[in-house]
C-alpha cells in the first residue's frame, strides 16, 4: 500500500454546497477504489492525506492535480505503507473556517483537531508530516 500528502490553494472561496458536492463524489469514488484519508480546509488552503493501492492513489492524485477548484498543488511526503492511518474514513473532512463559526467554536475545533492528532498513532513518516503540517498551520498567529 501507499500514502501521500499534499497541500494546495483553493482557487476561489469555496462555499458549503460546493464542498459538499466535492466530498460526496470523493467519498463515493474512494469507497469504490478502497481509498481512505483525511482532508483539511483552512484559510483558503487544502491539506490532504490519501492512502490505498499505489496505482489507484497515483491515478487519483493525477486527477486531483488537474482540478480547477485549487492550484499550487504540492506533494510534501509519500511512503510505502503496510497499515492505514485512517482505515475507517473514506474521506474525513475538517473545515476550519473562522468566518462560519464563532470564535469559541473555532478555538474548540482547533483544539479537537490537535487532540485527534495526538490520538491517531502515526505509523509512517507521511502521516507524521501530515499532522505536523496541520499543527503548524493552526497554531500560526492570526493575520491582523
Ligand atoms: C482538495 C480536493 C480534494 C479531492 N479529493 C478527492 C478524493 O479524495 N477522491 C476523489 O475521487 N476525488 C477527489 N477530488 C475531486 C477530483 O479532483 C475529481 O473532481 C473527481 O475525482 C472526479 O470524479 P469522476 O472522475 O468520478 O467524475 C478532490 C478535489 C479537490 C479540489
TrEMBL record:
Residues 1-92 form the BLUF domain. GO terms for molecular function: blue light photoreceptor activity; FAD binding. InterPro entries: Acylphosphatase-like_dom_sf (IPR036046), BLUF_domain (IPR007024). Gene3D superfamilies: 3.30.70.100. PROSITE patterns: BLUF (PS50925). This is BLUF domain-containing protein. SUPFAM superfamilies: Acylphosphatase/BLUF domain-like.
Amino acid at each position: 500500500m501507499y500514502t501521500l500528502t499534499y497541500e494546495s490553494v483553493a482557487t476561489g472561496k469555496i462555499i458549503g454546497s460546493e464542498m459538499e458536492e466535492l466530498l460526496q463524489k470523493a467519498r463515493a469514488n474512494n469507497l469504490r477504489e478502497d481509498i481512505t484519508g483525511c482532508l483539511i480546509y483552512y484559510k483558503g488552503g487544502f491539506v490532504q492525506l490519501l492512502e490505498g493501492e499505489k496505482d489507484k492513489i497515483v491515478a487519483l492524485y493525477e486527477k486531483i492535480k488537474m482540478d480547477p477548484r485549487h492550484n499550487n498543488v504540492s506533494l510534501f511526503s509519500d511512503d510505502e505503507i503496510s497499515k492505514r492511518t485512517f482505515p475507517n474514513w473514506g474521506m474525513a473532512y475538517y473545515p476550519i473556517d473562522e468566518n462560519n463559526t464563532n470564535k469559541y467554536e473555532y478555538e474548540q475545533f482547533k483544539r479537537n483537531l490537535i487532540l485527534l492528532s495526538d490520538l491517531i498513532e502515526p505509523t509512517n513518516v507521511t502521516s507524521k508530516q501530515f499532522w505536523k503540517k496541520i499543527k503548524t498551520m493552526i497554531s500560526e498567529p492570526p493575520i491582523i
